[in-house]
Design goal:
264 residues; mainly alpha; two-stranded antiparallel ribbon; two-stranded antiparallel sheet; 4 strands; 5% strand; globular
Length: 264
């Protein structure tokens, strides 16, 4: 586990951030190349990516805050005491993490806003970008593995990983863990490959490609949550926050896929 990388002995960078930036940069470069080959404006991909990054940041933080609300309600007196004692720490508790689903929704909204603002046709652009959403996400999950976040359940079978001591999760090294982050990364790489093949071999619209990704990922994420060991990510009853979001998004994705498309 390498939660941080020190560059030139001066700058310390979280490996999660470095991994995600690498995945995002590769995704944008590949998508720009694909756009050029298909006769589209590759710079629309680049500028839309900037809007996507802003949307990811806002959405991921907002959903993280929403995931904290049940815990705050249950332990309001404790949080109130923390706020009085250390406001920065209390704010970090509210906004100190990221929720992927929020980032995904924020990214899609970012593309829509860019297209509306600059009068760019949404459908061709989102069709080009769709295969690279799970590609970038896979790099993010590799970063989670390196950083020791989003870790798996205690597990002593094949491929079990024993993490080093991490002050952010001091209990993490108490038992070997299932490498759920790497499993999710693998599933995302597979999804990216399937979407790319569908892009090249079929005439499926961007909406349908995004719908296929959402159907695939919401089902996968629902079951992957049972392999997660980081209970602080938020629960409502027997379901985690991400499982509830998966249940909500799955019918939306199915409607996106099966609703008839407008014909010219």
């Amino acid at each position: 586990m390498y939660p941080q990388i020190r560059l030139f002995g001066v700058v310390t960078i979280p490996t999660y951030m470095l991994s995600f930036i690498a995945g995002l940069a590769l995704s944008v470069l590949f998508a720009m190349r694909l756009a050029k080959k298909d006769g589209k404006d590759r710079y629309d991909v680049l500028y839309a990516a900037i809007y996507m990054v802003i949307g990811i940041g806002i959405g991921a933080k907002l959903f993280f805050f929403l995931s904290r609300i049940p815990n705050i309600i249950r332990n309001f007196d404790i949080y109130k005491a923390l706020w009085k004692l250390n406001k920065l720490e209390a704010l970090n508790y509210l906004f100190g993490g990221l929720v992927f689903y929020g980032g995904l929704i924020g990214a899609l909204l970012g593309i829509i806003i860019y297209c509306r603002q600059y009068k760019v046709e949404l459908e061709p652009l989102i069709r080009i970008i769709a295969p690279f959403i799970p590609f970038a996400h896979a790099f993010g999950r590799i970063g989670c593995f390196l950083g020791g976040c989003c870790y798996g359940i205690a597990y002593d079978g094949p491929l079990a990983c024993h993490f080093d001591y991490n002050p952010l999760s001091p209990h993490l090294n108490e038992a070997p863990r299932f490498p759920v982050q790497l499993l999710e990364a693998l599933l995302n790489f597979i999804c990216a490959g399937v979407l790319y093949i569908l892009y090249k071999k079929t005439r499926l619209s961007g909406r349908k490609l995004v719908a296929i990704y959402l159907i695939y990922y919401t089902i996968a994420r629902f079951f992957l949550e049972y392999l997660r060991g980081d209970t602080e990510r938020g629960h409502v009853g027997l379901l985690s926050t991400s499982q509830i979001i998966s249940i909500v998004l799955l019918p939306v994705a199915l409607i996106m896929f099966f609703i008839p498309e407008k014909t010219a």
